[in-house]
Amino acid sequence: SCGNVQIRVTADNPLSLICHCTHCRRAHAAPSYHVLYTNPTETVIVKGRELLQVRDFLECVFVCPRCFSP
User: Fold this and answer.
1) Which of 5, 27, 38, 55 has the most CB atoms within 10 Å of its CB?
2) From CA 70, how far away is CA 35, in angstroms rounded?
3) What angle do CA 19, 20, 21 make, to 5 degrees?
4) d(CA 20, CA 66)
5) How many CB atoms lie within 10 A of CB 69?
6) CA 41 to CA 33: how far, in whole Å?
7) Per-residue pLDDT for the chain (70 aa), expressed as one digit of tens each?
8) What is the structure's pLDDT at 31?
9) What is the H or E stretch that residue 36 is in?
C-alpha cells in the first residue's frame, strides 16, 4: 500500500478469513483473498476517504486508485 488511504478498525474481534470463491479469485487475480469484516461503526477512515473507489459489484470493497490496495 502507498499510504494514501489509512483505515483504523476499532472492533475487538473482527471476523477475519481467507476467501477462495470465484469472485474473490478473479477480482484480485490470486488463489485467495484475506477478508476482514467489521461493523461500519467500528471502522474509521483516518486518511484518504475522498480517494476511495468502489471496486466490488456489491459496493463493499474499496480500493486506493493509486496502488489498488483494498
Assistant:
1) 5
2) 10
3) 100
4) 25
5) 11
6) 23
7) 678 888 888 888 888 889 888 877 887 788 988 888 888 788 888 888 887 766 655 555 666 777 766 6
8) 92
9) strand 33-37
Place of cell 461503526: 41
Are β-strands 33-37 and 6-9 bridged in parallel, bridged antiparallel, or unpaired? unpaired
Centroid of chain to Cα 50: 15
Provide the whole-model pTM.
Answer: 0.56
Residues in the chain: 70
In the numeric block, which cell numbers belong to residue 34? 484475506
> What SS3 state is found at 24?
helix
